[in-house]
Amino acid sequence: MNEEEMSWQDKYLSPSIEREKFKFSKLKRMFFDFKEIFIHAISFHKGPQYPPNELPDFESQDTEMIFMTCKQFYDDANNRIGNLEDKALKLLSYITALFAFISFAFINTNSIGTKILLLVSIIFLILSIIISFRCVNVKGRQSLFLPSVYDFSNNNASDNFDKRVIAKKMLNSAIFNQNVADNTADILKAARYTLTIAITVCIMGFLVGINGYFSDNGPKEIKIDNSINLNKIEETLDKNNLLLEKITDNIKSLDNKDNLYLEIEQLNNELENLKTDFKEVLKNLEELKVKENTTTINNEKENKKLESNSK
Fold it and tell me: Where are its TM segments located (predicted)?
């Protein structure tokens, strides 16, 4: 396409950003880049340094233009540090939400492989939190204060409110603060890389034990299948209660010695019957308990089998 056939968008606007081809060399470079900034992010840092040489004085005579340009440089450097702090706070909120999700997944899985991977992911999340905190409330930036406009070298302070002098101070502070912002950006980049690794390991752990999350390992309803009629037990107990009440009444009516032995013999027979009935009830209840325990053991074996399959 020649220049005459090109539209005004193609002539005067920036071309669209094209997709870059995947290269293993770039992946390798990213790995070494992460290694460098990760070590830098978790290490102790020296204080920011001033440049070896200071910029020369301004030669232009347009003082207003010089002042406004340097002020823009100064404001841009401070705003950049503020924006990096805001991004670090937002990243901390994302990490907190992901930490809660991974903790929930760690508690609700029985797969050893999944637990190990989720534990590794939690470790990277903690590192990401620690690194992100280093990007909040950044200290060391330079700002204008009294020494920028007053000379305290003599006994009596003398002011110097010349625009060119103040512009030079703001320009030097902007250079200094941009260096602080570059260091903060590198630390924030390391936090993002660490968070990416944590998410990747978390997904791997979730995929390893995905069957354990969707299999039915919850409490099961136990159904007791037996031939014992519980109503029969209830009727026997009611019958025995009535018999005990009758015995009590008979004891109260023993006022004649002639029929005393007869009544005692009758009471003895009734007590023997009660003893037999209660033995039968006890036997039925023991059979019911044994069958319930057998059903519980079978359910536990089935749950263990499901857990082993999920692993």
Answer: 91-110, 116-136, 193-214
How far apart (Å, rounded) are the C-alpha atoms in residues 140 and 182? Answer: 13
CA distance 25 to 28: 5
pTM for the whole thing?
0.62
Domain boundaries, the chain: 24-214, 230-310
Integer CA distances (angstroms), 241 to 72, 235, 247, in order: 100, 10, 10
Q: Which residues contact 67 (CB under 8 A, 6 or more apart)?
A: 163, 164, 166, 167
If the chain, 311 residues long, is cut into consecutive pieces of 10 residues, what is the mean pLDDT of each piece? 68 81 79 88 86 86 91 94 94 91 87 90 94 88 77 71 86 92 94 93 87 61 51 66 66 57 64 69 70 64 59 49
Q: What contacts 226, CB < 8 A, 6 or more positions away? A: 287, 288, 291
Q: Residue 190 in contact with residue 130, Cβ under 8 Å?
A: no
